[in-house]
Structures are given as C-alpha cells and as structure tokens.
Amino acid sequence: xxxxxxxxxxxxxxxxxxxxxxxxxxxxxxxxxxxxxxxxxxxxxxxxxxxxxxxxxxxxxxxxxxxxxxxxxxxxxxxxxxxxxxxxxxxxxxxxxxxxxxxxxxxxxxxxxxxxxxxxxxxxxxxxxxxxxxxxxxxxxxxxxxxxxxxxxxxxxxxxxxxxxxxxxxxxxxxxxxxxxxxxxxxxxxxxxxxxxxxxxxxxxxxxxxxxxxxxxxxxxxxxxxxxxxxxxxxxxxxxxxxxxxxxxxxxxxxxxxxxxxxxxxxxxxxxxxxxxxxxxxxxxxxxxxx
Length: 291
Hints:
4 helices; coiled coil; two-stranded antiparallel sheet; 11% strand; alpha+beta; single chain; 6 strands
C-alpha cells in the first residue's frame, strides 16, 4: 500500500500526510479489528467461564446433595451396623448354643453309631445263627421229605394192597352172598339134588362113568339125598343090571374136598337095594333129572 501511495505521489497523488494518516487509520482499523476479535474472544471466554461457573455451581450443588445423601446413607449404615452388631451378638449366642447342641448331637451320634455297630454285630451273629438253623432245618426238611416220600411210596403200596384187599373183600362178599344164596337154595331138596348133579357133572367121576358107558352101554341112573342135616347127593349108576357105582356129591362149599367121591361099587347086585331110575345120562355123559 505504501508503494501504491508512493506511486500515486510520484504520479501527482495525495500528499504524504494524508497517506500517513490513511496508513495510521488502516493500522488503527486493524488494531480495532484485533481488539474486536479479542473482545469477542474475551466475551466467548467469559461466557464459557460463566457457563463453566454455573455448571460448577450445579455440580457443587449435586455434590452437596450427594454428600447429604451419603451422610444419610452413612447414618443408615451405622444404624444398620449397630443392628447387625446386635444381631451378630445374638447370632454368636445362637451359634454357641448350636455348637453345644451339635456337640451333644455328636455324642448321641457316637453312642448311636456304637449301638448300630453292636446291633450290626448282633444282627450278623443272628444271621449266622439263622443260616445255621436254616441249614439244619433244610437238612431236617430233606430228611423229612425223604421219609414222607418213603411213606408216600409205602402209602401207595398200602393203598394198592388195600385196594387189592377191598377187591378181594368184595369178591369174598360176593362169594359169601352167592354162597348164602346157594345155601338158601340148598335148603330145598330138589335144588340140592340139582346142585349135587351139577357138581358131579364137573368132576372126574363123570369121566370114569363115561369110560364104563363106552364099554357097557348107557346106564340106569338113580339120584337121591343121603342122610344128615346137609346130606350129599347120592348118584347110583347100573350097567346091564350087573355093574354098579355109587357117587356122593356134596354141594355144600364148606365141605373139605373131595366133595365128589366114589362111595361104593361092585359087579354083583345081589344084596343091593336098587332104586328105580329117576334120571338119565345125556350128551357128553352128563347126568340130568328125569327119564
């Protein structure tokens, strides 16, 4: 700018005083601008300081409020601490009582453990004795089962024997009933005659008479009853009015054998009381009543 003013002066511009004045004015203007900038900066700094102070005042108030709250909390904690201390004393007393109770319980547990140990030993001894007793009982049971099986086999044999005896008894009863009926039938003379004839027909005497009949021909036959309470049946055979045989057949089952036997025989009829024939010999050499 000075160079420009110099050029203007050389070219007939304003005088140097004006130029200097203008220069000074320009310097002042610059200074004023600088001052304005400084004032603006100062105002900004003041505003910031005021804002910071206001913020600091608010922070202080917040800190004071926090302090008051902390003091109140401290008082509460002190009160709570005193309560805790009292509770701690009570807890310590309770703990002491509990420790004594635990010691007492430990003693009881030790006694119970001792009793349980003794009970376990007694139980083991009882189990051992029970096993031995069970073993003895098992042996006795096996022996008893063996005896029972033997008795059962014996019982089965006895039952079979009893069954056989019952069968025999029934047979004997049936035979006795039949014999009783037979004896009752033998009370009738005609039935007794017929029973004696049947007994003879099933005996060896019939074979003997048949042998003679094959040689001498058909014989004459007389059948009658002998003497006594239970007389035998008397069967007389005569061949050609010469040879004769007389058989006795006792139908009573109680008579000891022989129940059929040859009573008499001969080759001469002189002196022999002959009865007229009342029976005959039929097929097979069997004797039958009636002519």
